[in-house]
Amino acid sequence: MRRLLAGAVVVAMVIAGLGACASSEPERTAPDRCSTGRPLDVGTTTRTVVVGGVTRTYVQHVPPGYDPTARTPLVMLFHGLGGDPRAVVRTTGMAQAADERTAILVAPLGSGKVSHWDFRSPMTEPTSDLAFVRTLVKELRRDGCIDSSRTYAAGFSNGSALTLALACDGSTDFAAYAAVSGPYFTPDCASAPPASIVYFHGMKDRTVPYEGATTVVGQLPAVNDTMSMWASHDGCPASGATTTASDDLRHYSWTSCRDATAVDIYAIVDGVHGWPGGGPMSPGRTSRTEDSPVDATRLIWEFFDRHPAGGQ
């Protein structure tokens, strides 16, 4: 009996010791939570950040349901040539969609007297727009409780070319990309990781012609050629390609690509230079919901929802 009691005491001491060790370990933070609260001002505010010695401006929209400890999706939205952040947020309806999904929306301002994006200067140039975006994303992740696996880029026209240039660079770790009315791909993109891309373009666009042309931001390639190159870059198999056609829309889709990526194209037959389903993006050029067979904003968010980083 004494031996049994002694053994029981030893076992109890061991269990107690293990419990003490477990309680002394630092508390682990769940992957979907931040270890400390990172409060942000709810609503739309204008902010600045210094990059390469230059002060840059951006608009930040934080949804009412933002939780300072819950990792929240982030969408970067880039305006077109001569545009501005508040206008692109308003005309696309992206802020309302962000509120519905409890996501943070950030729309930076381009540079120059006529606001624009230099999508051709490499990330290695400290004052390039690619470097600006990467620095801004780092700042946003530091200040807010951001989900790095659900950080996305979207843009219109000149901002669309910047979005695809970010995919070509690949160093800012966006989970997926949405581009409207501005194709871009160069041989330098070959070294970039596979990228999930959804793309929209009006087939009657005269500002950035669907078949490619020299534009106010330089030579831009044909849409079909560009997106086929992205599909090839992503290693999308021919067996995963589908085409859906109607009188007003052509939808080309590649699935089962490398690293669970995908490439979608929505070609609007009567579409002009605009955001399908959105408001006026420049004087005299519109592409409103009633004029478009697709709602680009809705389709973009659905595409983003399907493509977190890692294809999870």
Describe this structure in words.
By secondary structure, this protein is an alpha/beta fold. It has a single domain, classed as Rossmann fold (3-Layer(aba) Sandwich). The protein has seven helices and twelve strands. The strands form two sheets. It has a ten-stranded mixed sheet, with helices on both faces. Strands 8-9 form a two-stranded antiparallel sheet. The longest helix has 23 residues, at 2-24. The chain is globular and about 50 Å long. The termini are far apart. Residues 1-28 and 282-290 have low confidence and may be disordered.
Key structural traits:
Rossmann fold; 7 helices; ten-stranded mixed sheet; two-stranded antiparallel ribbon; 312 residues; 12 strands; disordered N terminus; alpha/beta; globular
Question: Short summary of the structure?
Answer:
The chain is an alpha/beta fold. It has one domain (34-311): Rossmann fold (3-Layer(aba) Sandwich), CATH 3.40.50.1820.
How do the helices and strands line up, and which of them pair or pack?
Blueprint: H1 2-24, E1 43-51, E2 54-62, E3 72-78, H2 85-92, H3 94-101, E4 104-108, H4 129-143, E5 146-156, H5 158-169, E6 176-180, E7 197-202, E8 213-215, E9 218-220, H6 223-233, E10 241-245, E11 249-254, E12 263-268, H7 296-306
Parallel strand pairs: 3-4, 3-5, 5-6, 6-7, 7-12
Antiparallel strand pairs: 1-2, 2-4, 8-9, 10-11, 11-12
